[in-house]
Amino acid sequence: MNYLAHIHLAHKTNTSMLGNFFGDFVKGSELSHLDDEHQIGVRLHRKIDSYTDSHSDIKALRTLFPRSIRRMSGVVIDIYFDHLLCAHWDRYTGLPLDELLQHFYAEVEAYPYGMSERYQQVKRGLLDYRWLSDYQDIQSCERSFKHIEKRLGGRILFAEQAMHIVQHSNRELNASFLRFYPQLVAFADNMAKQLAAPEADFLNR
Description:
Largest sheet: none
Number of strands: 0
Low-confidence stretches: none
Number of helices: 11
Strand content: under 5%
Shape: globular
Mean pLDDT: 94
Helix content: 55-70%
């Protein structure tokens, strides 16, 4: 899942939004440099990603993409699902999107420790432009696709074709999202409880 979904799922599971966000930037199983709540967030992030990647609905959606860009289909679906989460926000959360994001930005700004250079770049962009709410606009998905193309040095060109696919397959993507996301919320809630339990060492990998 993409940034906004992980932040939303942290909110739904009463885990650290910042810790779940860290999951995109922390590598390996050694997490002792993080506070306990942030460790749980990173591990929950990883469990959510594994669950999503193995889910039958997500696997079926990947077949919508031609082989030439199928390697990027998971990234495209994750980003487009952030757009669909915005579109259906009131189904899953009583707290307005902008209010939740203000809490998240405050956590990001208050965290005093540095991490990877990639995290520092994203942090600066988040605090300067507050762009997570842009996913309400479908064009933000295309901007994200093109940004990833740029980060990859143009080695994989997929943005234009991916945008065409999601626009023309919106009905199928939307139906899959509405079927999948409540299952993901339930999975994340159960997993968060397990990760926080004293006997959770076997899960903390």
